[in-house]
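Lay summary

Proteins are chains of building blocks that fold into shapes. Our project writes down both the chain and a compact code for its shape. Here are two examples, one after the other.
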Amino acid sequence: MCLKNKACSVHDNINRIQCLIIKTSYHDSRPNFVLMMVDDLGIGDIGCYGNDTISTPNVDRLAADGVKLSQHLAAAPLCTPSRTAFMTGRYALRAGLGSTGRVQVILFLAGSGGLPPNETTFAKLLQKQGYTTGIVGKWHLGVNCESRNDHCHHPNNHGFDFFYGLPFTNFNDCKPGAGKGVLVDVQETLWQMSALLALASLTLLAVRASALLRVSWSLAAFLAVLSLLGFTAWFVPFELLRTWNCIIMRNGEVVEQPVKLETLSARLMSEAERFVERHKDGPFLLFLSLAHVHTPLFVSEGFTGKSKHGLYGDNVEEVDWMVGKMMETIERLGLSEKTLMYFTSDHGGHIEEGPKGGWNGIYRGGKAMGGWEGGIRVPGIFRWPGRLNPGREVAEPTSLMDVFPTVVKLAGGTLPEDRILDGRDLMPLLEGRTNRSQHEFMFHYCGMYLNAVRWHPPDSDSIFKVHFFTPNFSPAGAVGCYDTSICMCHGEFVTYHSPPLVFELSGDPSESRPLSPDTEPRLAEVLERVERAVTEHRRTLTPVERQLTWAKVLWKPWLQPCCGTFPFCSCEESNHTSAGAE
């Protein structure tokens, strides 16, 4: 296994021997890791977080057997930046994955933006410690930079020995009949433009044919060419989007294009179980990144109609089954006391989806809202029998970014010293050696914009949240951005507050009562201290290449992953898939 570890040079026998020694010497002392992340799950969708109508017995058992975090926070309210922060232990804008405009996530698998090759993931550091690393499920951090097979952003280039799953994500175009999900207004504009130009060209030809006016052939031809170009710019990247974006890869190979959602969950679980079985002698890290519960919703046979909450509830209950299968595998192999298991969501539920979206409990807002708690407060559960006392709850502020230093230290690795890390080791909190979070301040971004700041004063149990701007809900009186389907972070879509809005979350977790000098004697101190913290934080930011510009996110045919000969990309994975080699 070490021969395929990037930390072990093929041409350096000494490094290979050292890597083998590390792998052997820590065989029994260091934990395995199973990290499970759901897509778009609301914190209120889980039984142990207050839901009493959706059945989640396996996630609830995970919490009962371990430690539940009740103030666990995503570092961003959308998939791509949140997962960037999770992988690197750093705010996403440090890697160039923040946006100043409407495009805040990777939109095309054949774009050139993604997680830069010079970023260090926890998987890279665990490889150096002799771990076998795998990701099964969703990636959504890019694939290629300059050519179809350079795989500069691919999981295999970011420390994962094995990858099986969706290099993009599940979105509406992946499910026939579910509608469109990418730049719908741009698609409509291109279609209307091409239709109008075609009509103009035909009109000129008709006028010329009837001899009503003298019309230049070149003008009619020019309009026809423009119409064809507009039609091509609409049809090729957008109407074929299911083929381009909705694929399954095994390591660097496309094995299904487009994906068949109806069997996806079973295949993901099969691959995850096989990975653990192959590496039961450890040490290993598995990141199980589920495609559920992002729309379009889909469930496997046997889960339809089970929940009181319709198709969305069915999805959550299938997620719970998948968590249960993972727990069962670890227990069957006798790995429970050797394995740290973790469960979370990448951000809050998508409330604008209505019954097809998640519920964020008592928390205001949802997906894409970087300030309101509903967009960033997520489930956080750790289980490690024999090491973590069962049934504990930690109410201190913690972050998805904290997973990075936690797993690296437990694996015996050294944290990088050539870059700023924003995550903190969670083990002192999880083990009860301290009752205080290492996060005095947390910075909540929406794209590139600092949306809010959380302050947990060292001399107080209070947790203050300062909002610099809030999204403009639409229509008037709504609790989300229903007119645009999702909230945005810039321009006319937000309202800046001067002075900022301030809430005290310990007493007002729903953020419904802004503080005033009459209700909070420390208000001036809060604003002054947060202002200083923001200044200090911004000094740590350095310019990097931005990965979510239009030039990087738009479709480039020469970067399109393809099975077969481009553009005739089509293949179906066999029902009897063989275990992939790392």
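And here is the second example, written the same way.
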Amino acid sequence: MTTLTVREAVFYSAQLQLPDSMSISEKKERAEMTIREMGLQDSMDTRIGGWSTKGLSGGQKRRVSICIEILTWPKLLFLDEPTSGLDSAASYHVMNRIVKLAHQHGRTIIASIHQPSSEVFELFHNLCLLSYGKTVYFGPISMAEMLFATNGFPCPPLRNPSDHYLRTINKDFDEDIEQGIGSSSTEEIIDTLVKSYKSSEICKQVQHNVLKISQQKRGPLEKKGSQASFITQSIVLTKRSFINMYRDLGYYWLRFAIYIALCLCVGTIFHDIGLTYGSIQARGSMLMFVAAFLTFMAIGGFPSFVEDMKIFGRERLNGHYGVGAFVIGNTISSIPYLCFISLIPGALAYYLVGLQKSFDHFIYFVILLFTSTMLVESIMMTVASVVPNYLMGIITGAGIQGIMILNGGFFRLPDDLPKPFWRYPMYYIAFHKYANQGFYKNEFEGLSFPNNQVGGPPTITGDEVLRSFWQVEMGYSKWIDLVILFGMVVVYRLMFWGIIITVEKIKPLIKDYMAASPKKSSMILENPSSISSQLEML
């Protein structure tokens, strides 16, 4: 999370992963010890940083990620290029510390490594060389050189063995290898090494060990996951999310400034609206703007929420916490900010326009604005669980709200909506129906206006305006509209939770199906650039 410092990021992760039996001070000590082990003690109070603020370097961020993963001392840890972005000295110290942790706690570390120095290369015990989906070598790191030498590819003196191995088996740049077999292609060299390895004693020993291990009767594997309780996870995520929202200008502060500007525009355009017959239409237009376009601005925080979703996705798959804790944490942490951006801009618009002076009416106005804004955020959360990036999410969310605004009962009165689809069911699905009616009932009930219509009574009451002019359903009070909106907030947040859980279960099935497809397999073999030159150290 780019707005947190190194100390905060690791400490919050410690609280999420470590058991409740450990005290806060013990978790803090574990976090700071882990930071020192990764050589980040001088950057403890530096923010991680992102696109908007300068912070840690790429290599330091990578070390923070390693810190978060080794907090619980897992029995099996996979590190994907942990030394990328580090210089040779930092790479050695980081990997040396990881090796010491593996020895100290009896852990297994698997790492894909990028361009290791000879010192880093020697730290590993076992080596797996892959080229185009083929296992070129798997076994003790000291025996790899013998395999290459016996097949005519000895490592030249003073050359880094890892560089030599990769250069030999990389056919992205298929040039002649001047190692003793003339102009043989790299593909032929790879086939030679693969056949040699399969017939070697090393391969037979590996297969024997695999068979021996598979025949052992063991207990069930420990399930990787957080040892903290659900309540602890929810509390920690709420604190972390609150700090992130406070420090990220794009989450709420920029939106607050836009709200202030918009409400000043509304307040000056509709200033002191009065109680004339013409104010009926003006009041309805102003309240519709608040219910539709002011809440529409809630999509402005969507890019920041998408960044949170990326972090959630990684931490969720690593078992740090569940979907329920994330939803609760995000919901509770956003409430103070939503109250703030509803109260102050809402007060500006409300009193500049001159709506009903009663404090009860003003409180209802703010609560309804707050609920509608939270509802839009809930819709955007649901969108974020489906679309892959924030640009598509904003377009999708804007389209959904545009449809809801169109049939919310203002641009086309309810009785005039085409009954198939638009009246039933879209009119009742659109939250603007309940927001508009709540605002209208709150404002028009108890007022009276002069009647300019010929032959009519001299005055017209607010109830008559609601029934005839705005076609508002008067069979229930404005509080029912508020309750319905709040229920929609709950429904959309539950939809978000349900979609995340469903996707997690379906995605592996789809991947398995695609992997089993012959067409997919041939594509992997024909275009294996993602596997090419990949060196994995075990």
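What can we say about the second shape? The longest strand covers residues 134-140.
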